[in-house]
Amino acid sequence: MEFVTGVTQRDEWSIAELAGAPEHSRGKIRGAVHNIRDMGEISFLILRRYDGLVQCVCEESNSGVSLRTLKEGATVEAEGVSHREARAPGGTELCLTGLRILSEPVEPMPLPISKWKMHTSLEALLNNRPISLRNLRERAKFRIQETITRSFRDFLYSQNFTEIHTPKIGARGAEGGANIFKLDYFHHPAVLAQSPQFYKQMMVGVFDRVFETGPVFRAEKHNTKRHLNEYTSLDFEMGYIDSFTEIMEMETGFLRYMTEELKKRCEKELKMLEVDLPDVEKIPCVPFTEAKELVRQTYGRPIRSPYDLEPEEEELIGKYFKDACGADFVFVTHYPSKKRPFYAMDDPADPKYTLSFDLLFRGLEVTTGGQRIHDYPTLSRKLKDRGMSEEGMDQYLSAFKHGMPPHGGLGIGLERLTMQLIGEDNVRETTLFPRDMNRLEP
């Protein structure tokens, strides 16, 4: 009888181990053929791995290894001797003594993924997504995105949050409106979740502080560079707050932590994409009405929508605070109650506005959050004032009937945050497999 006792350490190098190996050490390394450069007597085989590129040197006359039939995209196990070479990626190359082919492609690459820039259309990149992501620059975007998500988790763990996982199929949406995907659920009407909002609030009564990273679905008929119909939301909800400003403070703490983690974990990717990390030491806050008036006075743009910010206004608010105080982020607070969900807490000083905010990053909204109503009588009254029924919200409302602490939270659009951070102008560029009005594949 055999037993599995854990992870077996494989007899192969990582790129860091190759770089740290003594000169002329023997070892193996595995990867995919990224490029082959035939220089006559000597050929260079570039392997692509999760941790970067490896340069292998092949002298066919001495090593007995031939690269003549090897194709781009093949996966191989290379065996050889380490050699210091300043021009090689990582400063060390592998002089081949053996090569074992693990798999071979049956078609040529549809895109020039070994090029530094592929110079092709976004449509072509998305149509060939499993292949285009093998390009180093394309892959780098999602290394950065992974670090953003990791930072969100790690920071909130350090602040005593509990990670939760909420259902994405429900009986009704958390925010109402028509932007809901409807589906048949065993002959019962159901919807895809617009957000985990109701579940986050209910779980504040259990764990005090909760967070989730997961997909949300919006059936919005938008075909813009900033909208998706499925995106990843970084959500948290925190209880026992004294003010909605504590939520903004928590997000600022996360952004500061994220920036430091990006510096540590993504140095190569940041350099590759020429990313200018934002300054997050302090973030200015401006009330909604004041922000709109600043745009009107400074840039002469008339106020057309009194209850929400238009995309051009977001851009101009970002420009104003960048010029005025060098800020990449700005919190816009106290949004009109008319444009916020029923659970948003109204400002006691002026109930026409809410204790809520958006965070703009370089002129684009990436976060919506605020304080929630935590007592049942107020919540019930607001539902009635809006002409809404409590039917179908029994489980949600029961949490408030049995006591809830003052609480609030937010949701961050991961793809938008990544897009603004790395300087892309289309959110599909920072989505692994985008879902919009026209795209269901790959």
From TrEMBL:
Its EC number is 6.1.1.23. Residues 197-200 are annotated as: Aspartate. Aspartyl-tRNA synthetase with relaxed tRNA specificity since it is able to aspartylate not only its cognate tRNA(Asp) but also tRNA(Asn). Reaction proceeds in two steps: L-aspartate is first activated by ATP to form Asp-AMP and then transferred to the acceptor end of tRNA(Asp/Asn). The lineage of its organism: Bacteria, Bacillati, Bacillota, Clostridia, Lachnospirales. InterPro entries: Aa-tRNA-synt_II (IPR004364), aa-tRNA-synth_II (IPR006195), aa-tRNA-synth_II/BPL/LPL (IPR045864), Asp-tRNA_synthase_2 (IPR004523), Asp/Asn-tRNA-synth_IIb (IPR002312), NA-bd_OB-fold (IPR012340), NA-bd_OB_tRNA (IPR004365). It comes from Candidatus Fusicatenibacter intestinigallinarum. Residues 142-442 form the Aminoacyl-transfer RNA synthetases class-II family profile domain. NCBIfam families: aspS_nondisc, PRK05159.1. ATP binds at residues 218-220, 226-228, 365, 413-416. The record marks 89 as: Important for tRNA non-discrimination. One of its GO terms (molecular function) is catalytic activity, acting on a protein. Belongs to the class-II aminoacyl-tRNA synthetase family. Type 2 subfamily. This is Aspartate--tRNA(Asp/Asn) ligase. L-aspartate binds at residues 175, 218, 368, 372. Homodimer. It catalyses: tRNA(Asx) + L-aspartate + ATP = L-aspartyl-tRNA(Asx) + AMP + diphosphate. Transmembrane segments: none annotated. Keywords: Aminoacyl-tRNA synthetase, ATP-binding, Cytoplasm, Ligase, Nucleotide-binding, Protein biosynthesis. One of its GO terms (biological process) is aspartyl-tRNA aminoacylation. It is found in: Cytoplasm.
